[in-house]
Design brief:
The protein is α+β, with helices and mostly antiparallel strands. The strands form five sheets. Strands 9, 10, 14, 18 and 19 form a five-stranded mixed sheet that branches. Strands 1, 2, 7 and 8 form a four-stranded mixed sheet that branches. α2 runs antiparallel to α3, α5 packs antiparallel against α9 and α6 crosses α7. The longest helix is centred in the C-terminal third of the chain and has 24 residues. The mean pLDDT is 90.
Length: 384
C-alpha cells in the first residue's frame, strides 16, 4: 500500500482546509471509486434514512477490510462515497468486492447502489490533503475532479467504468460496521446538514476562508455531538448491525453475532455505570462516548463544503441570510436540510485502532441538502 496519503503534511484544524499548500495531486495511476444510492430521496421519504446512510457508507469498510487498513482517502456524502485508491495488484478482486457490496446492499435494504471505478487519469486533476482529526482518524480533504466524477456517475460517460452487480468471486466483509447509538439531539434545537458549492473555477481559498470565518462568528460552538447526547441504542439498531455483518451467512452466524453484540453492549453499559476501565481491543469501554466525538466526521471538504452542525433558530436564520447574499453575488450555491438530531454511522477497522464516525442530520441530511443544491444548479443552467 502506497504511503502517499500517510506522508502528506497533516492539517491540524478545519481552518486550514483553505490553505492550498497542504494539497498534493493524486497520482495518475490511482483510481476513484464513486458510489451512489439510486433514488435515495424516495427511500428517505419512506422513512428509510438510516438504511440510506448505511448503504452509502458500507463501501468504506468493505474496502478497508480488503486492503487491511483505513489509510486511504475517502469522503462520505450521505447517500454515497468517494474513495481514492492506489493501483491494485489484483484489481479484479477489488471490483468483485465492490460488486458484492452492491449485491448485499440490495439484499439487506432493497436499495440499488450504483458503483463506478474511474481511473484518475480520465478526470480533471484531483488534489488531496490530510486533516488529523484524532490519533484514530485522518480525514481526507479533497479538491478537484471529485465533483466532476459525481456528475458523470449518472451519465453515459460512466458506463465503461460501472461495476456490474454480478456473482462475485470474492465476498465483501462488513466486519467493523457498528450501529449502536441513538440519534443524537443537539444542545440547541436545530441540527442541520449544509452543502456549499463554490462557483469560481479555481481553488476557492478566499471565499472558503471568508465563509468559515462568518459561520464561526454567527454560530459559535456548532458541534452536533456532545457527551450527554450520545446514548447506546436499543435492539433494532443492534439487529441492523448483526444483519449487515452476517448477510448471506445463514441464521446460525446471525445468532452467534447477535449474542456477541449483546454481550458487548452489556459490557459497555456496565463500564459506563461503574466507571471501570474495561477493555475491548484498544477501547476503554468507560470512555466509549468520547471516542465517538474524537473521530467524528461532521465537517468536510471535497470541492464542496459539507457540514452537519447545531444551532438555534435565530443564528440559523442569520446564517441563511448570509448564504443567500453570497448566492446573489454569484459566489456560491447551497443546499440545506434541517432536523432536530444527528445520526451516527460508525466503522472500526478491527485490525487496527483506526475508526470513523460519520455524522449526518436525521431524516435526510446531506442527501436532501444535495437535492436542493442540484435544483438550484439546474435553475442556474437554464439562465445561462
Amino acid at each position: 500500500m502506497t504511503s502517499f496519503f500517510n506522508d502528506l503534511r497533516p492539517m491540524e484544524a478545519y481552518d486550514q482546509i483553505g490553505d492550498a499548500s497542504y494539497y498534493k495531486a493524486v497520482p495518475q495511476d490511482w483510481n476513484l471509486v464513486m458510489t451512489d444510492v439510486v433514488n435515495s430521496t424516495g427511500a428517505i421519504q419512506d422513512g428509510r434514512y438510516k438504511e440510506v446512510n448505511i448503504a452509502g457508507a458500507l463501501p468504506v469498510i468493505a474496502v478497508a477490510n480488503h486492503l487491511g487498513n483505513m489509510h486511504y482517502p475517502f469522503v462520505f456524502g450521505g447517500d454515497g462515497m468517494a474513495l481514492l485508491l492506489p493501483p491494485q495488484d489484483d484489481p479484479e478482486t477489488l471490483k468483485s468486492i465492490l460488486a458484492d457490496t452492491a449485491n448485499k446492499v440490495a439484499q439487506l435494504y432493497d436499495l440499488s447502489l450504483r458503483v463506478a471505478l474511474f481511473p484518475v487519469n480520465v478526470l480533471p486533476p484531483i488534489q488531496v490533503a490530510r486533516l488529523q482529526i484524532s490519533q484514530y482518524y485522518d480525514q481526507a480533504i479533497i479538491s478537484g475532479g471529485i465533483q466532476d466524477a459525481e456528475s458523470l456517475l449518472k451519465t453515459d460517460f460512466a458506463l465503461p467504468y460501472m461495476i456490474a452487480q454480478k456473482e462475485p468471486k470474492t465476498e465483501a466483509s462488513f466486519q467493523g460496521f457498528t450501529c449502536r447509538w441513538q440519534d443524537v439531539p443537539g444542545k440547541k434545537p436545530i441540527t442541520f446538514s449544509l452543502v456549499v458549492e463554490f462557483q469560481q473555477s479555481d481553488f476557492p481559498a478566499n471565499d472558503l476562508h471568508d465563509l468559515q470565518a462568518a459561520m464561526k462568528r454567527i454560530l459559535g460552538d456548532s458541534n452536533p455531538l456532545h457527551l450527554d447526547g450520545i446514548q447506546l441504542s436499543g435492539s433494532d439498531a443492534l439487529k441492523r448491525e448483526g444483519r449487515a455483518q452476517t448477510v448471506g451467512r445463514g441464521k446460525l452466524a446471525y445468532l452467534a453475532t447477535m449474542a456477541r453484540i449483546r454481550l458487548e453492549q452489556f459490557a459497555c453499559k456496565f463500564a459506563k455505570m461503574t466507571g471501570l476501565p474495561l477493555k475491548s481491543g484498544w477501547y476503554d469501554l468507560s470512555r466509549l462516548r468520547e471516542y465517538q466525538m474524537l473521530s467524528s466526521d461532521y465537517y468536510k471538504f471535497d470541492g464542496s463544503l459539507k457540514m452537519t452542525l447545531n444551532a438555534d433558530r435565530q443564528s440559523l436564520t442569520q446564517l441563511i441570510d448570509y448564504l443567500d447574499s453570497l448566492e446573489r453575488e454569484g459566489k456560491i450555491l447551497y443546499g440545506i436540510h434541517e432536523s432536530d438530531r444527528a445520526l451516527l454511522t460508525c466503522f472500526l477497522h478491527l485490525g487496527s485502532s483506526r475508526e470513523v464516525h460519520f455524522v449526518d442530520s436525521a431524516d435526510g441530511g446531506y442527501a436532501l441538502a444535495g437535492k436542493m443544491l442540484k435544483k438550484k444548479r439546474a435553475e442556474q443552467a437554464k439562465l445561462l
